[in-house]
Amino acid sequence: MKRVVVTGSGGQIGSELVPHLRRLYGAERVLATDLRPASGPLAEGGPFACLDVRDGEAFSALVRHFRADTVLHLAGLLSARGEKDVALAWDVNVNGSATALEVARQEGTAFFFPSSIAAFGPSTPKKETPQETLQRPTTIYGVGKVALELLCDYYHLKFGVDTRGLRFPGLISHETQPGGGTTDYAVHIYYEAVRKGNYTSFIAPGTFMDMMYMADALDAVVGLMEADPARLVHRNAFNISAMSVDPEAIASAIGKVIPGFTIAYDVDPLRQAIAESWPDSLDCSAARKEWDFAPRYDLETMTREMLDRIASKGGRAA
Ligand code: NAD
Ligand code: SER
């Protein structure tokens, strides 16, 4: 990657990925874009442009004028939000992503697509879910992720586009709040722990999902995009995860730092049903073998850092 365009950069991932890339590659070489105008580090730390990813002409022009060699396509609607507006989720997640991929083909750039644990469904093996297995998701978000995984592989095979993707687990971070997903509880719990010393979870105890700290997710994006293509047997998309946890496990890790922390439950049927349709834990051996994936944070180290950082901001989201 030498000159990078990032879509959906104002979200939970982009707001940290863009500054990370600007530190690595130089501020002027990373163009941040989003539907809405940005403020703060995103707009002030380097170039920024408004872009609706469904507008192929505007998208192509931006990529061409910036002389980008890579498009990191983050724009999208998360799982729970998608179930509440299926037509919009399809339009942005599928039509918008297909447009982004076509722009990459026309402009000759590499293309990164963030898939998800949501690309699996209830008929997928739940534990140590293999890299290649049944994918029959039951959310519109997951259906879109499978469609784009396949389309990205197709564009690589048919047109030679350098497409690469990750099946992200739930991402835990302290800069930008998550945008309406099922794993959001695993971020909210840390804020409430700092603010109030207790948390009411919308996901039930015993519901295991894969998670990862944002620092490891940023390293994974760069690691995959910089990987030697000769080593890549797979492309779209690699299973990655750093931990498989349920709400009790996170609460117990928080309790070691904030004694007396308590968790209660008020389960949301929509998000609980989504969580139950996803794997408990992923097999990440292909990512380890093909591009040396190696997350640095486990539940304990992530928990200490999350609580420290949120406390240093007085419990406020940025
Ligand atoms: P987010 O909801 O925090 O941010 C998404 C961004 O996309 C927002 O800034 C929004 O303004 C922008 N956007 C929406 N519609 C757009 C459009 N039409 N044109 C341009 N921008 C538009 O999402 P995120 O958590 O940063 O996730 C980014 C990507 O990673 C998504 O594809 C998501 O599915 C995927 N992912 C995220 C997680 C996670 O835990 N955060 C896990 C798995 C996969
Ligand atoms: N964190 C995302 C969600 O819950 C997973 O893709 O929607």
From TrEMBL:
Protein name, UniProt field: NAD-dependent epimerase/dehydratase family protein
Question: Ranges for the NAD-dependent epimerase/dehydratase domain?
Answer: 4-240
Write down the superkingdom of origin. Bacteria
| GO function terms (MF aspect) | L-threonine 3-dehydrogenase activity
Q: Which PANTHER family match?
A: L-THREONINE 3-DEHYDROGENASE, L-THREONINE 3-DEHYDROGENASE, MITOCHONDRIAL
Family that this chain belongs to: Belongs to the NAD(P)-dependent epimerase/dehydratase family.
What is the source species?
A: Aminithiophilus ramosus
InterPro entries for the chain: Epimerase_deHydtase, NAD(P)-bd_dom_sf, NAD(P)_epim/dehydratase
* BP GO annotations: L-threonine catabolic process
